[in-house]
UniProtKB/TrEMBL annotation:
Gene3D superfamilies: Glycogen Phosphorylase B (3.40.50.2000). One of its GO terms (molecular function) is glycosyltransferase activity. It holds the Pfam family Glycos_transf_1. Residues 194-349 form the Glycosyl transferase family domain. Residues 11-178 form the Glycosyltransferase subfamily 4-like N-terminal domain. This is N-acetyl-alpha-D-glucosaminyl L-malate synthase BshA. It comes from the Bacteria. The gene is bshA. SUPFAM superfamilies: UDP-Glycosyltransferase/glycogen phosphorylase.
Amino acid sequence: MKIAIVCYPTFGGSGVVATELGLSLAEHGHEIHFITYKQPVRLELLSKNIHFHEVSVPVYPLFHYQPYELALSSKLVDMVKLHKIELLHVHYAIPHAYAGYMAQKMLAEENIHIPMVTTLHGTDITLVGNHPFYKPAVTFSINNSDVVTSVSKSLKEDTLHLFDIKKEIHVVPNFIDIPKKINPFTECQRDLMAEPDERIITHVSNLRPVKRVKDVIEIFDRIQQRIPAKLIVVGEGPEREACENLCVEKGIEEKVLFVGNSNEVDKILCFTDLFLLPSEKESFGLAALEAMACGVPVISSNTGGLPEVNIEGVSGFLSEVGNVAEMAENALKILESDETLARFKKQAIESAMIYDTKKIVPLYEKLYKDAILRKNGD
Ligand code: GMT
């Protein structure tokens, strides 16, 4: 199949999933066209089946806001015609589903009919999309997609609860290439980060308020009072400065390393003992799944789709949002002995297995084939 993938090219989870999906589909022999404003961060190598088309938005000073959706839908129309693309898969409803719908309408004028699959990722529903200013447009674009998928059961329920949805929503969970994650490095270089007796704890996110990064610091502070430990915070975002200040206030700045955005998350996870994700909302928690696939147990909140990923008492523990005391106690339970830690590490990998790429990507392929058949039969 010839498939166009529209996504955010940045470090966010939806862009990562879209990129990994495209790469996997290309390996299966499909021709993949990424269409977005920048080359996606995880799309390092362009291969035979992978193409990238940049959407440029000319800056016109009269416009207070430059019309990205317009440029995107025009680019979609041009690329579909040029490359004979058979299906659009848009990730994140805003504004991609809306732009995709407009592209479909323009193409239909020329008698080109291609289906659009929309994948809902989380904040496009629970935070941004739900805002009254966007809600009518988001509802409309979901209801007018040919196929709608959500990355967890919980997100499907939230979508049905928050919007007036007439379409079936298929749950296609996020996925991870487990064989690529298990022990890819011969040398973890743990000694660069910590002393041999210190446990290494990691948090990866875009450091937005929804991730509750201050809770990460609070949990770590309680842990380090009981056992030797270091915290690595990966990512950039608005909460970084306040969290760095909090570390200084608590006198733990020497034990916390803010490393910014990184393309080497797997290397960091290789020597990590525990992953913290105390988010306010999390439709799935791809970062937790990535950690688990690398053999890192997870302490998380129990919000959204996290209970579908992090299994209580198996891959880690879950607590109510904000219950940092319980999260710290649970973390210490896992970290208290090498034996317990080794057991949780093994169980984390086993729990991640159900989301292996090989099991999930064929679900998308089946939805694509059916959508194309249906569209041709319309
Ligand atoms: O929350 C983020 O870090 C970014 C955001 C995005 O859209 O890029 O992530 C959402 O989509 C991910 C991939 O499907 C999910 O794993 C995250 O749980 C989800 N984030 C939230 O729901 C807050």
